[in-house]
Design a protein that fits this description.
By secondary structure, the protein is α/β, with parallel strands linked by helices. The protein is built from 6 helices and 6 strands; from the N terminus they run H-H-E-H-E-E-H-E-H-E-H-E.
């Protein structure tokens, strides 16, 4: 019986240690009117970390495109003022969460993963859509 209790306790402790080692998911913070006002006034950055092709297909107004998958991502993001808040978004919130990790490593003070483009657009954040022409020659 003691062996069984010991094995159960060991298994339980192992499960706790394994769970503690998993990195917590990045919180997605909803961009509010104050964030938008800061961005409009140039007191904060809005960074779209999607590819240039995705950005050209539509993006949030006032956004700067810095491709997370680009070879120069760290160099480009490091050019931003580390004391200004940085609001990051992508398609779903995944790349912007990883970009937030990079900003933390680079010593940025305030950075926020605000989620995905379509979600933000649906919530009323101003967006610019790709202008397509339906006229044919």
């Amino acid at each position: 019986m003691r062996k069984l209790t010991f094995l159960f306790m060991l298994l339980f402790a192992s499960a706790l240690v394994a769970q503690a080692q998993h990195k917590a998911p990045k919180n997605i913070v909803k961009a509010d009117d104050q964030a938008l006002a800061k961005i409009k006034a140039g007191k904060a950055y809005l960074v779209d970390v999607r590819t240039p092709e995705e950005f050209d297909g539509g993006h949030l107004q006032y956004a700067k495109n810095i491709n997370f998958n680009g070879t120069d991502f760290k160099a480009q993001i490091a050019k931003l003022d580390k004391h200004k808040p940085v609001y990051l978004y992508c398609r779903s919130g995944n790349r912007s969460g990883k970009a937030a990790d990079t900003l933390q490593a680079l010593g940025f003070h305030s950075y926020y993963n605000i989620g995905g483009f379509e979600q933000l657009k649906a919530e009323g954040f101003p967006a610019k859509q790709l202008q397509t022409s339906t006229a044919r020659k």
